[in-house]
Amino acid sequence: MEVVITSGAQESARLAADAVEQLLARKPDAVLGLATGSTPLPTYDELVRRHEAGQVSFARARGFTLDEYIGLPADHPQRYRNVIDRELVGRVDFASDAVTGPDGLAEDLQAAAEAYERAIAAAGGVDLQILGIGTNGHIAFNEPGSSLASRTRVQPLAPQTRTDNARFFEDDVEAVPRLCFTQGLGTIMEARHLVLIATGEGKAAAVQQLVEGPVSARWPATVMQHHPHATVLLDEAAASRLELADYYREAYAAKPEWQGI
Ligand code: PGA
């Protein structure tokens, strides 16, 4: 796992956008894994900026979102399908239907979860997965206790997650759905490059476990320690509890620039 301590959210966004731009330059029909939440927004803004400058095209790319609330009405602004359209897909040149997410309104939820797994596999798997991390160490909505081998499934949201996400629902925790679809940890681990971004002191405990803790379902993101190409982009606050922060800084400073992340 490569840990990069950046000067802040903007530098993290630039590095993540560099990785996406370089991927699309060498593989225009790449498959992107798109996180929602607040953390990736500066990255999406940076990609939109580069798209408008003619530097990057998504015309042949495809995308899969990580997770979805179950039961939100189709036009609800916090439905992740709508969030990703608003924040990225509708602002660049993805082909229509090139980006999909699990169907939170499916009648048969189990069948929808299995269909989502098949769709990712049929697309050839995810080349680059953008990730955030929950304060409780979840990635996607894989809450503590999730099997490290889990696949796309229906999950209850942890109380911590519902509290954390109430800010998207006018601070009304009761308005936050109780059930979600999430790609499993096993699903996410099949993506060829994982790029996790964390900003702010609120993520420091989860980041400490992710980078330096034992691999455990208690902190689901720790499964990333088993991934052959995982990059963690942190601001100073998110990195503030890392025991080996100085070492990560030195290692990154010594890295040849051509290697990218
Ligand atoms: P955030 O959410 O980016 O809104 O902090 C991250 C997450 O819960 O995975």
Automatic annotation (TrEMBL):
EC code: 3.5.99.6
Q: What class of enzyme is it?
A: hydrolase
SUPFAM superfamilies of this UniProt entry? Answer: NagB/RpiA/CoA transferase-like
**Glucosamine/galactosamine-6-phosphate isomerase domain: from which residue to which, for each copy?**
9-227
**Pathway annotation from the record:** Amino-sugar metabolism; N-acetylneuraminate degradation; D-fructose 6-phosphate from N-acetylneuraminate: step 5/5
What the entry lists under PROSITE patterns is as follows: GLC_GALNAC_ISOMERASE (PS01161)
**GO terms for molecular function, please?**
glucosamine-6-phosphate deaminase activity; identical protein binding
- From the UniProt record, list the coiled-coil ranges: none
Q: Which domain of life is it from?
A: Bacteria
GO biological process terms, semicolon-separated: carbohydrate metabolic process; glucosamine catabolic process; N-acetylglucosamine catabolic process; N-acetylneuraminate catabolic process
Q: Which GO terms describe its cellular component?
A: cytoplasm
Q: Which CDD domains match?
A: GlcN6P_deaminase (cd01399)
Pfam families assigned to the protein according to its UniProt record, in alphabetical order: Glucosamine_iso
Reaction(s) catalyzed by this protein? alpha-D-glucosamine 6-phosphate + H2O = beta-D-fructose 6-phosphate + NH4(+)
The catalytic site is made up of 67, 136, 138, 143
Task: Provide the alphabetized UniProt keywords.
Answer: Carbohydrate metabolism, Hydrolase
Q: Which Gene3D superfamilies match?
A: 3.40.50.1360
InterPro entries documented for this protein: Glc/Gal-6P_isomerase, Glucosamine6P_isomerase, Glucosamine6P_isomerase_CS, NagB/RpiA_transferase-like
**Function, please?**
Catalyzes the reversible isomerization-deamination of glucosamine 6-phosphate (GlcN6P) to form fructose 6-phosphate (Fru6P) and ammonium ion.
UniProt family annotation: Belongs to the glucosamine/galactosamine-6-phosphate isomerase family. NagB subfamily.
Q: What is this protein called?
A: Glucosamine-6-phosphate deaminase
Where is the organism placed in the taxonomic lineage, from the top?
Answer: Bacteria, Bacillati, Actinomycetota, Actinomycetes, Micrococcales
